[in-house]
Amino acid sequence: MRIALALEYDGRAFCGFQSQPSRCGVQDALEAAIGEVGAGEARVTSAGRTDAGVHATSQVVHFDAPNPRPPTAWVRGVNALLPPAVAVLWALQVGDDFHARFTAHARHYTYLLRCRAERVGLEAGRVGWYHRPLDVAAMRAAAALVVGRHDFSAFRAAECQAKTPVRELARCEIAMRGELLRFDFSADGFLHHMIRNLVGAFVAIGSGSRPSAWIGELLASRDRTQGPATFAADGLYFTGADYDARFALPATRRDIEPLP
Description:
Alpha-Beta Plaits; 5 helices; alpha+beta
């Protein structure tokens, strides 16, 4: 019996989604809870492997249940055994042809960035921070240059294990509400640190230290060493993945709730 489910979690409580020897990953907590409810071992596969400190509003996963249980057991039962910072949103039995990673045809992230002189306190760990206002028009001009199918090697972490650096970035939008900047990204897939490196480049442009056209030059260089430092994980949220309608899943995308 294959089960698909969606999770939300606060990334500050974990060392990332993926299982680690120290058992500090979201996957570790989830597999332990599923194993207890299902009375056996289960291996979880996710739509996206988020880094330490990265949050999720709708992380889709699947696993092969060790023993049959009603759907409520995979939600209420598992939630009763998970740490407070992670919760199952829904669970559904699916066919063996469903795979949380390989059948996803798009993934979505949002980055929230607070721009003000004072560092954040109430939102610490939930938004990124930059110490002064940024030029949104310049950043939007830069965002238009990275949309499309490109080799994103210049925005790829050295430890990235993806077989190819080529990705189709379908959406890269920037909006502002007061002091809060919002970056929305959609792609067929993302490289390790790709979004955080893109945000770092946008901030360099928005601050005036680089022109908008620089991001195109950086992209063409395929050289990570030419880019800015990787931006903080704090404001990054995995907001879901897209799947074919034939799987009849509940909503697999979930926007961020408004912050204070």
